[in-house]
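If your schedule permits, I should be very grateful for your opinion on a structural question. I have a record of one protein: its chain in single-letter code and its fold written as C-alpha cells. Kindly check, if you would, that the fold set down in the C-alpha cells agrees with what the sequence suggests. I remain grateful for any guidance, and I place the record below:

***
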Amino acid sequence: MTSTTRTAPPLLKPLARGLLLAALVGASLPAMADEQGDRIKALEARLETSLKLIEQLSARLNTVEQGKTGGAVAGAPNTEQAQALAALQANVAQLNESLSKQSHDTGLPVHGFADVGGGWSSGKDPVKLRGFNGGTLDLYLTPQFGQRVKSLIELAVEYGVDGGVALDMERLQLGYTINDDLTVWMGRFHTPMGLWNTSFHHGANLQTSVFRPRFIDFEDKGGFVPAHSVGVWFSGKTGTDSGRVTYDVFVANGPSIKDRTLDFRGFTDNSPNKMLGFNVGFQPKGSLAGLTVGVHGFGSQVDSIKADDSVFASTKLQMTGAYLGYDADDWEILGEYYRFSNTDQATGAKNGSNAWFGQVGKTFGSFTPFVRFESTSLSTADAYFTSQESGRSYKRTALGVRYALDPKSSLKLELSNTRENAVTQLDADGGAAPFAATSYRRAAIQYSAAF
C-alpha cells in the first residue's frame, strides 16, 4: 500500500468554522435571552440541538480520520456524512442570520443619575437655600431599533423651589444615521450651543461643579437662553489630517417669554418664526489633543406674552459667539462667549449685550478643585432680557472641589458670591418692575451618583 501524507478531510475546515460560529452564537444567547423573550429561547433550543449533532458528526469524522472505520478511506468521509454536515452548517448559518437581525433590538436599557445635597444662602438669593434637598432623579433610555435608527429619552424627577415635585420630559429625540458623518435627529433635544449644554445634561455627576453657569441654566431654573429646543437637528463630524471637525445645524420652535420665564414651546409653535442655529467645532490632533474650539449662534423672533396671550413686546434675537475647552493631562478648562445683537421689532432699535463664563479645574488623584467666573452685561432697553426674571446683569465667582468616591459617584462642595445690577424690568403684563442692586452668597454640598 502506497504511503501518503495524511491530511485533514476537506469538510473538517467548514466544520471548524461551523463550530466556531455556533460557539459564538451560543455565547451570545444568554445575554440576549432576557431581552428577546420567547423567540430567542426557541432559537437557543434549536442551536443546542445543532451543537449536539455537530459533536456526534465530529466524533465520527475523527474516527474516519484515524482510519478506524471499516471500509472508509482516511480523508474521504462518506456521502451520508457529508450531506448531514452540509445541512447542519446551513442550519447554523440560518440561526446566526436570525440572531443577527435581532441583535440591534437591545430592548430598553435604562441608565440614570441621582443627587442629594444641602446648602445655605443669604437672604437675597432667589433660590433661598436652607438645609437639605432631594435633588434630581434623572433617567435616560437609549433603545436602538436597528443599525441606523437610534433614540434618546430623558426623564427628570425633581423638587421645585416651591417644594413641589415635578416630572419633566427633558429629552425625547429619535435619530437616523445617514452615514458615519451625519445623523438627523427630531424631537426635543438640548440646544447644541457651546460645550456645556451639549456635554452636561441633568445628571449632576457628569459635571465638576454643583451648579451650572447661571445664564445657561435650564429655563425653569433661571437660564435666559434656550437650553432646550424642539425641532430637527443635523449633527455630524468628519476627520481631517490635522484633526476632527464637528458640526450641528438645527431648526426649532421659536421661543417666547411668558410669566417672566423663557418658554421653548415644547408642544406647539403658533409663530411662523422658527429658531435657526449652528455649532461648528474643531478638535486638533497631536500635541493639542484634548482641545476643542468652536463658534456657535442662533436667532429667532421672541414674543413677550401677557397672561391673556396678547403680545406686549417682540424681539428679533440674534446670538453669535465662541467657545473653548480642554480636557487632558488632568486639566479641565471650559469657556464660552455669547454676543447678543437684538432688535426691538416695534421701534427698530438695536441693543447689544454679552455674557461669558470661564471655568478651570485640575485633578489631583481623587480631588478636582475648580474656580469659575461668570459675567453678563445686558442692555436695560432690551425687552428680551428685561421681561425675564433672571435677565439682569450680574457677576459671579464660584469655587469648589469635587471628590470622586469611585468612577460613578462623587461628593462636591461649592461656594459662590453673586452681585446683580439695579435695573427696571417688565412684569408679567409688561409694566415697570424696578429692582435694586443686590448681592448674595451661597454654599452647597452635593452627593451625586450614576447607575
Notes: Residues 282 and 344 are 34 Å apart (CA to CA).
